């Protein structure tokens, strides 16, 4: 199962989720920005960097690492990544915190002595998902994390419980993530089998697909308008409104065709042809 992908989506969608695991979250926790950062000129990529807002009184950067397999070099790599990142940003950040999330305690590296001063301090917090307790006693976001370590029948029961909670709270994004986790866990099953297994309404997946399609359409339309403005030096209002009314497939087609445009007349011709 691609847990790194799942946790990237989790933190990208809900960056405040990390701070539900932290003993003393920053005052500006809701405004932190999540990024996956590559440290150039090395082979390092930090799983998650949570950047404070520029106007935060205390510039504390949080580093997250998610580990679901045994890796004896984990701490060597993690502390090297942190040091390199801070070396590249020596002025902005006043302090740092590390949150390392293990599926279970037995996945932690066995040689802790060499890192004892850092691990014993207050800058690094280690989380063991299987020790967080009953899913039903956790916030919905942490419940998603716990779902990643469930298997078989327990995974299905947990997913059904979380779906019920997400539906009650109208959390469409969380419903989508629950379905994604189950798809990864049961890759041998068809979409219809998974829908039936989770007890989802037949209409609901269609609504989710439509919501995602609308989101892609909005992103695609914004990108195409930017490219048209750059290529043509501006778009008359009448053509701008027509572009905004295009379907997703038409936006994708226009995105390919506009590379050959040189004047607004080319855009006008394309719109007349494709809008009938």
From TrEMBL:
Can you say what this protein is called?
Answer: Rpn family recombination-promoting nuclease/putative transposase
Show the taxonomic lineage: Bacteria, Bacillati, Cyanobacteriota, Cyanophyceae, Nostocales
Q: Which residues form the DUF4351 domain?
A: 213-271
Signal sequence extent:
none
Q: Which InterPro entries match?
A: DUF2887, DUF4351, RpnA
Species: Calothrix parietina FACHB-288
């Amino acid at each position: 199962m691609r847990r790194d992908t799942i946790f990237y989506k989790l933190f990208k969608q809900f960056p405040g989720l990390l701070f539900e695991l932290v003993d003393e979250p920053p005052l500006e926790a809701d405004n932190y920005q999540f990024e996956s950062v590559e440290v150039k000129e090395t082979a390092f990529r930090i799983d998650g960097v949570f950047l404070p807002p520029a106007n935060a009184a205390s510039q504390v950067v949080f580093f997250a690492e998610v580990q679901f397999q045994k890796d004896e070099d984990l701490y060597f790599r993690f502390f090297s990544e942190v040091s390199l990142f801070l070396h590249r940003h020596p002025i902005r950040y006043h302090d740092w915190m590390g949150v390392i999330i293990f599926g279970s305690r037995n996945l932690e590296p066995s040689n802790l002595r060499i890192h004892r001063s850092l691990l014993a301090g207050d800058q690094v917090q280690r989380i063991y998902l299987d020790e967080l307790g009953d899913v039903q006693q956790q916030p919905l976001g942490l419940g998603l994390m716990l779902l990643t370590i469930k298997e078989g029948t327990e995974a299905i029961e947990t997913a059904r419980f979380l779906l019920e909670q997400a539906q009650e709270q109208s959390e469409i994004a969380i419903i989508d993530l629950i379905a994604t986790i189950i798809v990864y866990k049961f890759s041998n099953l068809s979409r219809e089998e998974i829908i039936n297994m989770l007890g989802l309404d037949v209409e609901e997946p269609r609504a989710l697909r439509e919501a995602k399609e609308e989101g892609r359409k909005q992103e695609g339309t914004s990108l195409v308008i930017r490219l048209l403005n750059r290529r043509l030096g501006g778009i008359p209002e009448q053509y701008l409104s027509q572009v905004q009314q295009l379907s997703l497939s038409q936006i994708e087609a226009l995105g390919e065709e506009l590379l050959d445009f040189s004047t607004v007349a080319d855009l006008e011709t394309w719109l007349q042809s494709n809008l009938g």
